[in-house]
């Protein structure tokens, strides 16, 4: 028997079956566990969650006089509870990037913790909690729906030592944005995001000394890495995850259109739409992120290089991916026709060649500028972008801070 009760009535010895509300409202990444630790009880009562589900067949019951909001028979443990799946009313109306950035930063912090715990538990042989991962993916999808540029841009700015966890979060967001650009139905958009979040779970089977190696891998080490898609697929199946999208992206996100990928060497029409999408999103985040062995490439430069890799990606999907990010993605450093350097802060969907930028430096004087926001698509604007610039050559330490407005962002992200 499952009972929905107030947090005030939760006691040690109860079996927590689920939290009522958003996963962001409670401090645990698991949802089902025997409550034995007084500190865990205190954390539940201090959280924003006001009700929980308990399973009285697996733990203590409430006293007869305690109020019970709802009671149901736990006939099918595989089906998520209706009340457990209740979510705070989603605010899906489009918002500006500046409005979404702060909310996205909080979401990324929580998602990073959840994914890190998932990987650590996987290494210890524990099962993946698919309900928590689905909730994380849903919140990421909501953020991307409100404003695609905010969370995607923040997720790119990650430290080298947190790459494995944040890469999963970033690919989730990129998959959602790409699926929306392709015009997929909402259900498929969210399935794509869930697949992106879980696509690299097989890396839990790679020894950490290989996963975090700062130099080139040996042939033997790379052979171990090449097994992670199949290992991940096996982990998802073992966790009872039968979502076709999640399984397909996990197994085949390293395949190539020309058959040169792994683990199965599939090519062309043998690759599903989701696998082709996963390949693009996975590579883009990998090459724009700081890794233990190299600094990430500039977003605009990364798209330029990816476009030159013939036979790697589905061209139609790659073109849609570029449209979803912009020709000059947020964070790109560009040279303006008035001889100033500027960083891209937001896209103009109606004109990808003319994003919104903030000025950074005068090329004439070589002096830093007080950042000025310029909408290059505005009718009164008389300047445009002349070319991309390599941030590494200009060594502007607060570039990410300028476009995001978040103090200190990116200062510690580059590998030493």
TrEMBL record:
Keywords: Hydrolase. InterPro entries: DUF3391, HD/PDEase_dom, HD_GYP_dom, HDIG_dom. The keyword Transport does not apply. Residues 142-337 form the HD-GYP domain. Its EC number is 3.1.4.52. It is an enzyme of class 3 (hydrolase). PANTHER family: CYCLIC DI-GMP PHOSPHODIESTERASE PA4108, CYCLIC DI-GMP PHOSPHODIESTERASE PA4108-RELATED. This is Cyclic di-GMP phosphodiesterase response regulator RpfG. It comes from Tepidimonas sediminis. The gene is rpfG_4.
């Amino acid at each position: 028997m499952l009972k929905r009760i107030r947090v005030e009535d939760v006691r040690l010895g109860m079996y927590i079956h689920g939290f009522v509300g958003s996963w962001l409202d409670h401090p645990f990444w698991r949802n089902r566990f025997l409550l034995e630790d007084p500190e865990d009880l205190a954390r539940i009562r201090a959280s924003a969650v006001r009700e929980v589900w308990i399973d009285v067949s697996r733990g203590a019951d409430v006293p007869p006089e305690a109020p019970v909001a709802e009671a149901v028979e736990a006939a099918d443990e595989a089906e998520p509870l209706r009340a457990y799946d209740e979510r705070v009313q989603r605010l899906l109306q489009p918002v500006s990037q500046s409005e979404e950035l702060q909310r996205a930063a909080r979401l990324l912090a929580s998602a990073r913790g959840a994914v890190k715990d998932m990987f650590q538990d996987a290494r210890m042989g524990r099962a993946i909690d698919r309900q928590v991962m689905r909730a994380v993916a849903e919140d990421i999808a909501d953020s991307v729906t409100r404003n695609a540029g905010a969370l995607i841009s923040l997720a790119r700015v990650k430290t080298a030592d947190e790459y494995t966890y944040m890469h999963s979060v970033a690919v989730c967001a990129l998959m959602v944005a790409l699926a929306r650009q392709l015009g997929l139905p909402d259900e498929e958009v969210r399935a794509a995001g869930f697949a992106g979040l879980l696509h690299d779970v097989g890396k839990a089977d790679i020894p950490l000394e290989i996963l975090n190696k700062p130099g080139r891998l040996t042939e033997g080490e790379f052979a171990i890495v090449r097994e992670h898609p199949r290992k991940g697929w096996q982990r998802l199946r073992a966790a009872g995850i039968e979502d076709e999208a999640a399984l397909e992206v996990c197994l085949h996100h390293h395949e190539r259109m020309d058959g040169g990928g792994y683990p199965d060497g599939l090519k062309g029409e043998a690759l599903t739409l989701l696998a082709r999408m996963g390949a693009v999103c996975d590579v883009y985040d990998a090459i724009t992120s700081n890794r233990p062995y190299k600094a990430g490439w500039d977003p605009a430069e990364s798209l330029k290089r990816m476009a030159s890799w013939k036979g790697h990606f589905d061209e139609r999907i790659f073109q849609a991916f570029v449209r979803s990010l912009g020709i000059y993605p947020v964070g790109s450093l560009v040279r303006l026709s008035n001889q100033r350097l500027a960083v891209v802060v937001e896209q103009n969907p109606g004109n990808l060649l003319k994003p919104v930028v903030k000025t950074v430096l005068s090329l004439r004087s070589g002096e830093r500028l007080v950042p000025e926001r310029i909408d290059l698509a505005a009718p009164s604007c008389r300047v445009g972008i002349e070319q991309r610039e390599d941030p590494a050559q200009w060594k502007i330490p607060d570039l990410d801070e300028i476009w995001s407005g978040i103090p200190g962002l990116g200062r510690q992200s580059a590998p030493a």
